[in-house]
Write a structure and sequence with these properties.
There is one protein chain. It contains 4 helices and 10 strands. By secondary structure, the protein is an alpha+beta fold. The longest helix has 19 residues.
Length: 207
């Protein structure tokens, strides 16, 4: 029998978690549009194609998390990003990033101790706008303008990536999937379609 999983922080009870018998660890699997933050010795995993995942951790207080997001199809540039008016796409990206940061701070993390690792943004959807590159430009600008410490990235190219993040140590294991898995492509197309049909509404706090 596998050991009991550690208790999740409030709000993450819906995230699928399982015991991996090969590496003897509990794993939380997040899907597009989801995030997960933990103070426990468990692994967070996802598979990104055009999407981006940010792995963020407090290196002192042992808490970290990961998100998985895609901007709605929209051309982004630095002048738009730095303008007073914040577009729906940017508000969405802001929310995805700020949610993980704010959750870490809420449960004892300190902003000055945060480090960030970025992954994904592959151009996997042929004959479509390069959503991956837009995601890359957004998240790099975000990290720079927010003054966060970027310590590693593996972005771009044409491959989907399987990411395994160990929040307590900061270790990230990456597997590039050489053969396109149709399930990944279909999942991201559906996710993108949902974003376009349901634009971000309401206010998102910017920090």
């Amino acid at each position: 029998m596998p050991p009991e999983p550690p208790r999740t922080l409030p709000g993450y009870e819906h995230i699928k978690r399982y015991w991996d018998y090969h590496i003897h660890a509990h794993i939380a699997k997040i899907l597009p549009g989801e995030s997960y933050v933990t103070r426990h010795d468990e692994i967070i995993t996802t598979v990104v194609g055009s999407c981006v995942s940010a792995c963020i951790r407090d290196v002192v207080n042992n808490i970290g998390g990961m998100n998985h997001f895609m901007l709605p199809a929209q051309q982004l540039n630095s002048s738009e990003w730095e303008a007073t008016h914040v577009s729906a796409a940017m508000r969405y990206g802001n929310y995805a990033m700020e949610h993980v940061v704010n959750e870490i701070l809420k449960y004892g993390g300190k902003r000055q101790y945060l480090e960030v690792k970025l992954f994904g943004g592959g151009q996997i959807m042929k004959n479509m706008a390069n959503i991956g590159q837009q995601n890359i430009e957004f998240v790099r600008n975000y990290v720079r303008l927010e003054g966060l410490k970027l310590v590693a990235e593996d972005l771009g190219d044409i491959y989907p990536r399987k990411i395994m993040f160990y929040p307590l140590t900061g270790l990230v294991r990456i597997k590039k999937l050489r053969a396109m898995e149709q399930a990944i492509l279909e999942r991201e197309k559906m996710y993108q379609s949902n974003l376009q049909k349901q634009p971000v509404g309401g206010d998102v706090d910017l920090f």
